[in-house]
Specification:
The strands form two sheets. This protein has a six-stranded mixed beta sheet, sandwiched between helices. A three-stranded mixed beta sheet has the order 5-7-8. The chain is of the alpha/beta class and 279 residues long. The chain has helices at 14-19, 46-57, 106-121, 141-148, 176-194, 200-206, 218-230, 234-247, 252-278, and strands spanning 22-27, 30-35, 65-70, 129-134, 137-139, 151-155, 159-161, 197-199, 211-213. It contains nine helices and nine strands. The chain has two domains: 14-230, 2-enoyl-CoA Hydratase, Chain A, domain 1 (Alpha-Beta Complex); 234-277, Lyase 2-enoyl-coa Hydratase, Chain  A, domain 2 (Orthogonal Bundle). Helix 2 (46-57) crosses helix 3 (106-121) and helix 8 runs antiparallel to helix 9 (252-278). Bound molecules: acetoacetyl-coenzyme A (CAA). Acetoacetyl-coenzyme A binds at residues 40-41, 43, 77-82, 137, 139-141, 163-164, 167, 169, 172.
Length: 279
């Protein structure tokens, strides 16, 4: 059965999270999302991504940092390959249903994929800083999920692979833009069209990892990073991330103008806070 592309706006229940292969722990300003299907090497399904989208839509107020990680010694083996079989994954639509005999509704399939992409897109929200903590393989959709985050912290056993072209597919879960933004189109072509594994050390050299640490240090390194991120003013952090996100698409003049507008907003807020404090 096809899932509705736009899942309900209520927060997923524990049972729904579990069926989607996800765990969610919110502690004050920090949400930790764990991809958790260890028996399938944390492979993800359509339900994983529609549920991720719901998590994004229903995060409690005040959450500023989202850490995305995988259960055990792997980030994710990517899409559950059973999604491409006519039977699909238990309780979920097969992505290929009806395509061979022409009975599939392509517009509906495009809408369905857009719903899956929602699970990745919200991780760019300027009011959040999102961190991928990667151990072991991040393959296909797993790599794209890591690319959707602002910061990638890799354990030294991490391995990134854009496997889709090797399977006759394209990466369609919003990963191509950040990949090109980070490594440039030429390196992105090489990485995608060979579908080779990029190890942690090379990932750091290419800018695909902000930090590489020993496997046993991953949790502590991410906690330290989160502590540092929480030390900044939340509204300034949101305004700064928004500025940084538009920089690549702006001319220098446009970006300078955007900086001025953002700073006037910040100065106004600070002046108002000072005035209120002195009353
Ligand atoms: N989908 C479904 N099941 C998977 C899976 C996947 N992506 N990856 C692993 N599993 C299952 C295996 O079938 C196996 O199941 P059984 O115990 O029932 O046999 C179990 O998980 C353990 O797998 P392995 O024995 O292979 O574990 P490993 O540690 O030796 O290897 C791995 C791990 C390198 C991730 C390997 O499992 C692998 O290469 N998996 C497939 C990766 C893949 O091709 N993913 C799809 C990429 S494309 C994409 O994500 C996006 C897209 O197309 C749009």
């Amino acid at each position: 059965m096809a899932e509705a592309p736009n899942a309900p706006a209520s927060a997923p229940t524990e049972e729904e999270l579990s069926r989607a292969g996800l765990k969610l722990a919110v502690d004050g300003q920090v949400a930790r999302i764990t991809i958790s299907r260890p028996e399938r090497r944390n492979a993800m399904t359509g339900r994983t991504w529609t549920t991720l989208a719901r998590i994004g839509r229903t995060l409690p107020d005040g959450v500023r940092i989202v850490v995305v990680t995988g259960e055990g010694d792997i980030f994710s083996a990517g899409i559950d390959l059973n999604m491409f079989t006519p039977e699909g994954v238990d309780g979920e639509r097969s992505i290929v249903a009806g395509l061979a005999d022409g009975s599939a509704d392509e517009a509906a399939l495009e809408e369905y994929i857009a719903g899956l992409q929602e699970g990745f897109l919200w991780l760019r929200r300027p009011d959040l800083v999102t961190v991928a903590a990667v151990r072991g393989h991040a393959i296909g959709a797993g790599f794209q999920l890591a690319l959707s985050c602002d910061i990638r912290v890799l354990a030294d056993d991490a391995s990134l692979c854009m496997k889709e072209p090797a399977l006759g597919l394209v990466p369609d879960l919003t990963g191509t833009k950040p990949l090109v933004d980070i490594v440039g189109v030429h390196r992105a072509v090489e990485i995608c069209l060979t579908a080779r594994r990029v190890g942690a050390r090379e990932a750091r050299e290419l800018g695909l990892a902000e930090l590489v640490v020993g496997v046993d240090e991953l949790r502590g390194a991410v906690d330290d990073l989160v502590g540092g991120l929480l030390a900044t003013n939340p509204d300034a952090a949101t305004a700064t991330k928004a500025l940084l996100q538009q920089a690549a698409g702006n001319t220098l003049e446009q970006q300078a103008a955007a900086e001025r507008r953002a700073q006037i907003g910040r100065l106004t807020a600070l002046a108002e806070a000072m005035a209120a404090g002195s009353r």
